[in-house]
């Protein structure tokens, strides 16, 4: 029997458009002999819209932005609908959501409560992976080398802005990067070379989050690796990002399409082993499930620093994660099929947990 797969996309997030691009690419790649595909669209206002089964790939994101009466997420759950409607429910949900209200553990928690299998990381890993401060604190505890960093919440900054800027200058210096703590896709990120740019970067980053992180600049190649699995994760080949700008920003990721991607990256066997080891350690430190993409800096001296992990990396035509696995011998359709299998595996394991005394 075919698996009834719900593609959950959109979302109340600044990364709404990125999610649409991801959903479009995944929908085109799905093997229709194995899956019946159902679109589940979350509008920018947070409304849920469940569409009819998709007979084939859609051609553009406009077709995914359904307009209909909003539905409750509860219609997805076999356990919360009348028996006669159960055949219309979803077997597995693939949350193709990026940013807050989707990639941060919120949707994962809802799916856990409804006991629905879903692709990717659980509540803890999703939440910790989204919050760059918490993630880096966990990596520090795990002994993973990374750039020096500091962070602020908005109220702290508003009380004494000058003190905040001076702390950054004293602890990190210039250049440095200012980022919202809970966003991806390089939204709201700026590289700062002086106080004026630092002030402007704080202002912008705080538009997207109540907490921001500031990191020292590491001069090195940008290396990425894919991780796939549950309790026994494995790694892909490595790839290198070669941005034509100062850093790999939102426009380069999703609009230009001309950023250099070198797959596989030219690194030594020893460097690969180090990156592989750090990626697996990061995955396990977060209690990962399904997938992550781990991002590193590799200096000319051969030092490796972990930058971050992405618990739901993009699947757009320019996205690194599926490209890495394609070069490792796992095709686009096979990758999606494996992620669904891992989701079912993790869900079945959870059903063995005893909840009563």
Walkthrough of the structure:
It contains 11 helices and 13 strands. The protein is globular. It is 34% helix and 22% strand. It has 3 domains: 3-118, Rossmann fold; 148-216, ATP-grasp fold, A domain (Dna Ligase, domain 1, 2-Layer Sandwich), CATH 3.30.1490.20; 219-349, 2-Layer Sandwich (D-amino Acid Aminotransferase, Chain A, domain 1). Mean pLDDT is 90; it is low at 80-86. By secondary structure, the chain is of the alpha+beta class.
What is the fold-level CATH name, i.e. the topology of the largest domain? D-amino Acid Aminotransferase, Chain A, domain 1
Total count of helical runs of at least 4 residues? 11
Order of helices and strands: EHEEEHHHEHHEEHEEEHEHEEHH
CATH architecture group name of the largest domain: 2-Layer Sandwich
Structural class: alpha+beta
Q: Say how many strands there are.
A: 13
Q: Report how far apart the termini are.
A: 37 Å
Lateral arrangement of strands in the main beta sheet: 11-10-9-12-13
Q: Could you describe the largest sheet, including whether it forms a barrel? A: 5 strands, antiparallel
Helix content: 25-40%
In terms of DSSP E residues, the strand content is: 15-25%
Taking pLDDT < 50 over at least 5 consecutive residues as the criterion, the unreliable ranges are 80-86
User: CATH superfamily assignment of the largest domain?
Assistant: ATP-grasp fold, B domain
- Total separate domains: 3
Top-tier CATH class of the largest domain? Alpha Beta
Shape: globular
Radius of gyration: 21 Å
Determine the mean pLDDT. Answer: 90
Protein name: D-alanine--D-alanine ligase
Cofactor: Mg(2+); Mn(2+)
Family: Belongs to the D-alanine--D-alanine ligase family.
Pathway: Cell wall biogenesis; peptidoglycan biosynthesis
């Amino acid at each position: 029997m075919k698996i009834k797969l719900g593609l959950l996309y959109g979302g109340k997030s600044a990364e709404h458009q990125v999610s649409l691009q991801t959903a479009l690419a995944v929908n085109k790649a799905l093997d229709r002999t194995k899956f019946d595909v159902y679109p589940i669209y979350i509008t920018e206002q947070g409304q849920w819209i469940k569409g009819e089964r998709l007979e084939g790939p859609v051609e553009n994101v406009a077709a995914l932005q359904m307009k209909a009466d909003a539905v409750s997420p509860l219609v997805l759950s076999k356990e919360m609908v009348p028996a006669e409607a159960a055949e219309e429910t979803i077997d597995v949900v693939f949350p193709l959501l990026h940013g807050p209200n989707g990639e941060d553990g919120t949707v994962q928690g809802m799916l856990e409560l409804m006991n629905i299998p879903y692709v990717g990381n659980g509540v803890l890993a999703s939440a910790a992976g989204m919050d760059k401060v918490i993630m880096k604190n966990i990596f520090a505890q795990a002994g993973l080398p990374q750039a020096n960093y500091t962070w602020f919440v908005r109220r702290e900054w508003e009380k004494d802005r000058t003190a905040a800027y001076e702390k950054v200058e004293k602890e990190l210096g210039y250049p440095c990067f200012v980022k919202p703590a809970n966003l991806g896709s390089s939204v709201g990120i700026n590289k700062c070379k002086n106080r004026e740019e630092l002030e402007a970067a704080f202002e912008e980053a705080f538009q997207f989050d109540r907490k921001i992180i500031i990191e020292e600049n590491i001069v090195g190649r940008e290396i990425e690796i894919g991780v796939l699995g549950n309790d026994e994760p494995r790694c892909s080949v490595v790839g290198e990002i070669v941005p034509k700008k100062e850093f790999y920003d939102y426009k380069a990721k999703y609009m230009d399409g001309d950023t250099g991607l070198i797959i596989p990256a030219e690194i030594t066997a020893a460097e690969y082993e180090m990156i592989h080891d750090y990626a697996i350690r990061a995955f396990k430190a977060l209690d990962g499930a399904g997938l992550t993409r781990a991002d590193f800096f590799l200096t000319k001296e051969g030092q490796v620093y972990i930058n971050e992990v992405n618990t739901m990396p993009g699947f757009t035509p320019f996205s690194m994660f599926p490209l890495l696995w394609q070069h490792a011998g796992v095709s686009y359709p096979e990758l999606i099929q494996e992620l669904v299998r891992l989701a079912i595996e993790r869900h079945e394991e959870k059903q063995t947990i005893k909840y009563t005394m």
